[in-house]
Amino acid sequence: MFRLVICGLLLAATGIAGRAQQTGTTKTTPAIPLAAQPDYQPSAEKTWDLLHTKIDVRFDYAQRRMPGKVWLTLKPHFYPSKTLTLDAKGMFIHKVALVKPTGMQPLQFNYPDSMQLQILLDKTYQPTDKLTVYVEYTARPDEIKVKGSQAITDAKGLYFINADGKDSTKPIQIWTQGETEATSVWCPIIDKTNQKTTQELSMTVPAKYVTLSNGLLVKQVKNTDGTRTDTWKMDLPHSPYLFFMGVGEYSIVKDKYKNLAVDYYVEPKYASVAKGIFGETPAMMAFFSKLLGVEYPWAKYAQIVGQDYVSGAMENTTSTLHGAGAYQNARQLKDGNSWEIVVAHELFHQWFGDLVTAESWSNLTVNESLADYSEYLWMEYKYGKDRALDYNREAMEGYLAQPGNASKHLVRFQYADKEDMFDGVSYQKGGRILNMLRQYLGDSAFFKGLNVYLTNNKFKNAEAHQLRLAMEEVSGKDLNWFFDQWYFGSGHPKVSLHYQFVDSANMLNVIVEQKQKDKLFYFPIDIDVYTNGKAERSSYWIGKHVSDTIRIAYSTKPTWVNVDPQKLMLWEKDNNLDDAMWLAQMQEGKNYLDKVEALESLAPRWKKEAGYDNALQQLLTDRYYGTRKAALKQLKRGNIKATPASLSLIEKMAATETDLPTRAMALDVLSLQCNAAYETAFTKALQDSSYSVAGAALESLARLDANKAIASAKAQEQDAKGRLKAALQIVDYLKKDTAQASTVLADFKKMAFFEKLQAANGMLYYANRLTDVSNFKKAAGSAIEVYKMLRMDFQGWQTNMLSTLRWMIAVRQQALSNNPNNTLLQEQLKYLQDKTGL
Length: 838
Ligand SMILES: [Zn+2]
Known about the structure:
Cofactor: Zn(2+)
Oligomer: single chain
Low-confidence stretches: 6-30, 147-152
GO cellular component, one term: membrane
Radius of gyration: 30 Å
Bound molecules: zinc ion
Distance between the termini: 43 Å
CATH topology of the domain at 47-249: Immunoglobulin-like
Signal peptide: 1-19
Strand order of the largest sheet: 5-4-8-2-1-11-14-13
Strand content: 15-25%
Number of strands: 29
Mean pLDDT: 94
CATH superfamily of the domain at 47-249: tricorn interacting facor f3 domain
Keywords: Aminopeptidase, Hydrolase, Metal-binding, Metalloprotease, Protease, Signal, Zinc
Shape: globular
InterPro entries: Aminopeptidase_N-like_N, Aminopeptidase_N-like_N_sf, ARM-like, ARM-type_fold, Peptidase_M1, Peptidase_M1_aminopeptidases, Peptidase_M1_dom, Peptidase_M4/M1_CTD_sf
Largest sheet: 8 strands, mixed
């Protein structure tokens, strides 16, 4: 599953999550065995093995119910058994019978809590026996109510979207979401990850709709009542939570990987952009198959987009479901396909999750950490190491942003709710751990290890131990220390790095201090020592010590030192290089993170020196757009002032930069210069089809001339998303009457937090035009309040607001240099500077 983490990050940024954290009760460690602790989550006991599941359903759109029939073929797992318990949530059960060659033999059953169907069989069955049980039922996903369970209301399993067709803006659709244990809302089944079954599913639907399910479409029959029955078949076994049904009016855009069908099910208006969104799928299938040495395991691959989906995306076997966030129009795609990593993530699950499945939710890492890491692998393969490192840091920050994450084990048997396992630990931390493991073992051993893991466990379940055993089998290395620390332990090192040059002895001491309180870590580390632009690498082990000193002899004094040059470590580091070494790192660093870490370290105390400016120009012309963008971001945030030389590079970027969000940022930097000479550049960029570029151009124009921005905005209103939409919101504030400040202010104060967040930048532009000092302070102050809540740079909003504040200050400073006695400007300037510390 791909979870959308935006809300989580934002909550962390605003401190809301921090408060929520504190309301938890304090727990003391009980002196009773782990297994007996009340929140211990054991793996599901296997009493029966599912073998084959045949399902036949119709849909009652009016009542949002689903009448169904299921034939379950099973056998006792090991011990003989006379009873069978199926998960069946909130259904009407009409009939339970044993399928015999002579016909149906009704069976006694009990359904006391509408959660589990208890069936008494006709005799005791041995593990060598096979039987087929038939259940006729009606699923009622919208009526299901279970006492005391909050989660079940979010886990309806079967979703009717706009079933009565009353919402003209939304298509009529049906989709299902099984993970974690919600398939049993629409099909009586043993709804546990450690079951695997082949499947045959027939759906009877209005003939105008298409259907999608697992496996291949093997039969279509037109019925006389205007419906059609589609039968889908999965010949290979998979887990019940991966069952899928999708129904609706879709265009099926066809693609191919080798001789396999690769289909994209999108609403007809998105048919023209389907390949822009999903079109890398065949290349990803080829790449992952080759990398793993295991061909894509299933008979087809389809991706479908569902409205009102409850998560980001879900890897149902052969039939991935994406939320509507996948939809992007052609203009959005020009700024880059924001859904590409989700496509990679869900595809990788077809191996890790679907072919080999986590044996329990406690071991979710063998699904989600691998899927998370596939995003890195795809980035590295398709866009190169710099892009992968950029992504890697973002993911690591995602894990670090949630304070609760550091105390959770990657594999954990204690959790309140299985949904809690889908967090920054199972995903982002796990992905980074795999990256460290890959580095430790080397590429060929690591990927061969994944191959052995998949081959040994295909169509079965696995725990983290199976991954360890596969890696040990291939590499011959003991990995208990690694897994104990990273998989069955929590936290990460928080290191302080210090450097001492002992000139008398030609000796460099690199001191690695572990500052975290709870436990110490043991890990290998590489160090590159640079002398005159040349690096020499050596490798060390950091012990479980509060402080380790690594001694490196030199003949010529090094210019800078690069600890963890591959930037692999999952840690927080306080790197105490001096400025001269940082500058050398910025100039000589080999990868994106070398350069950008140095830039970010020096930016707050940037010196007006040729060396600094040369390094900046080098970054502005770097091979990777992310580096160029990072340099522009420091300029946009006003940490660095552009020199004429760097400014001429930025002017060029504003016209020709190939990565369009980066080009937009070049415009942002130009607009900070308060220079009317750039008006032509802004007006030209306003015509660009990229929302980022057009949006940045409109905001830039608003800084130069509010009336021109208002006049130009009209043509943009028809079609605006993302940055352009944000710029139009600014223009809305430019249009507001400055005589009505108290109303504008009152409206702003009434807004919900997210609404306020989006309006806050516009509010600054409104404040900028107020000539009443008291109103100016109120308006600017209320926006600055929002700005200050964004402690983390969240989706560029904080940077955008910071840039606007810098611009407001610059405008006033410029005006005051011509008219030093303007008391209004003086007071406004003082207020802005006092409030923001800029
Ligand atoms: Zn996932």
